[in-house]
Write a structure and sequence with these properties.
The protein has 413 residues and is an alpha/beta fold. The protein is built from ten helices and eleven strands.
Length: 413
């Protein structure tokens, strides 16, 4: 019976793994539906998403049905196996002893089988749980085994411990200038992050012949949605404006500077602290002030300067509790323009050496856009390295450098 039950355990694991896969896909789709429920309602896509969710749920239920059918068969075997094993054993003993079986031998055998019956039943009942544990451990192991992208190792500066890199000794201490080299395919990519304690420290951004991709799986094939051969430098006090059509690679350039893309070739150097404002403003549940400070201590002079530069003074006046107004989950109480200005204010309040702004002016009116550019981007942040991706071409004449992106390639204008 044990081989049959071991085969059942393998089937349990297979069906339970498939069920978990379909369940994960269904939960992910449900989360996306809930997050985008306004758009779904606006375009009347309820039936389409309902069919998709129902299809995944049916696949999940089918796998669960298989699991429960196997469970039923397993319990049936568990109930009948002691009798079957007893009968088979008696027949074997009769055959060995030439059909002569003494009562004392038979009763001893029956007593022994009665003692083993409990353990056999517990073993059978444990098989489904062993299969569940096996599936859970594999899923946890897959999560643990996920490899971080090589350029993330520059985070060692926060701990002072140099991470081990294949083919290179683990050495170095906090404060050293470090260049991490990562070989991917036929290309070589390097990332450099000098520390502020370095005597040669200068805030700067340098990209030298950089090719990068969003998907780490493309790192081996050098295919996919890539930045191609990007070269530019930016020093303190410079305003670099990145322009181009939608999908040309402006946001990808900023993402590559914060290590959210895999560098396939070339070298990237970002020295100094970095503040990033995304194209879609991210607002957390809490007050407006909490969203601007974002965990930093309150510095009244800097805070007031940022609020004024980001044109939030008027908004605070009309809000019921000023900057202590609770914005709700994901800023449901705020307009698109208010979200964009709060996101910009958060980046400005960080007082970072490098400020990356992904089209913060697109969600505001023309006169507000002019105020933000003059008072914040070219005013409050004039001593920073500011890299601004934008469609507002009327401000190009105030930029130190202009990068024009076309089909993931760039040229200076």
């Amino acid at each position: 019976m044990i081989p049959i039950q071991l085969a059942f355990t393998s089937l349990f694991s297979k069906f339970r793994t498939n069920g978990a896969k379909y369940g994960d896909a269904r939960v992910k789709l449900m989360r996306e539906v809930i997050e985008g429920i306004r758009v779904i309602k606006m375009y009347v896509w309820e039936d389409s998403f309902k069919r998709l969710i129902k299809k995944l749920r049916l696949k999940e239920v089918n796998e669960l049905i298989k699991v429960h059918v196997l469970n039923g068969v397993n319990y049936g075997i568990n109930a009948g196996s002691p009798q079957l094993v007893t009968m088979a054993t008696v027949l074997v003993v009769l055959y060995v002893h030439n059909d002569h079986l003494l009562p004392d031998v038979l009763f001893c055998y029956m007593l022994l089988m009665g003692d083993l019956k409990l353990y056999a039943q517990l073993y059978t009942l444990s098989l489904p749980y062993m299969a569940e544990i096996n599936v859970a451990v594999k899923r946890i192991q897959n999560l643990i085994d996920i490899v971080e992208e090589p350029q993330f190792y520059v985070e060692y500066a926060k701990t002072g411990v140099m991470p081990a890199i294949p083919g290179r000794p683990s050495k170095g201490k906090k404060g050293d200038r470090v260049v991490l080299e990562v070989v991917i395919g036929d290309g070589r990519a390097t990332t450099s992050t000098p520390s502020e304690s370095d005597p040669d420290y200068v805030a700067q951004v340098v990209l030298n012949n950089v090719t990068a991709t969003h998907d780490s799986l493309d790192a081996e094939t050098n295919t996919g949605f890539n930045l191609k051969n990007v070269n530019f430098t930016a020093a303190r006090g410079e305003l670099v404006m990145v322009v181009g059509s939608t999908g040309s690679g402006k946001s990808s350039l900023l993402l590559s500077l914060i290590d959210e893309m895999v560098i396939l070739n070339g070298t990237k150097t970002c020295s100094g602290s970095v503040a990033y404002s995304s194209q879609e403003a991210w607002i957390m549940a809490g007050t407006v002030q909490d969203n601007i400070l974002f965990g930093l201590p309150l510095k009244p002079y800097l805070y007031n300067s940022v609020v004024l530069a980001c044109s939030l003074t008027r908004d605070f006046e009309i809000m019921p509790d000023g900057d202590q107004t609770v914005v709700g989950e994901r800023g449901v109480m705020l307009s698109g323009g208010q979200k964009a200005r709060i996101s910009l204010a958060r980046a400005a309040y960080r007082d970072a050496d490098i400020v990356l702004l992904d089209d913060p002016l697109s969600a505001v009116d023309t006169h507000v856009s002019k105020q933000l550019f003059e008072k914040c981007i070219s005013g409050l942040l004039k001593d920073k390295i500011v890299i601004l991706a934008t469609h507002q071409l009327q401000y190009l004449h105030q930029a130190t450098k202009v990068l024009l992106f076309q089909q993931m390639k760039f040229r200076f204008v």
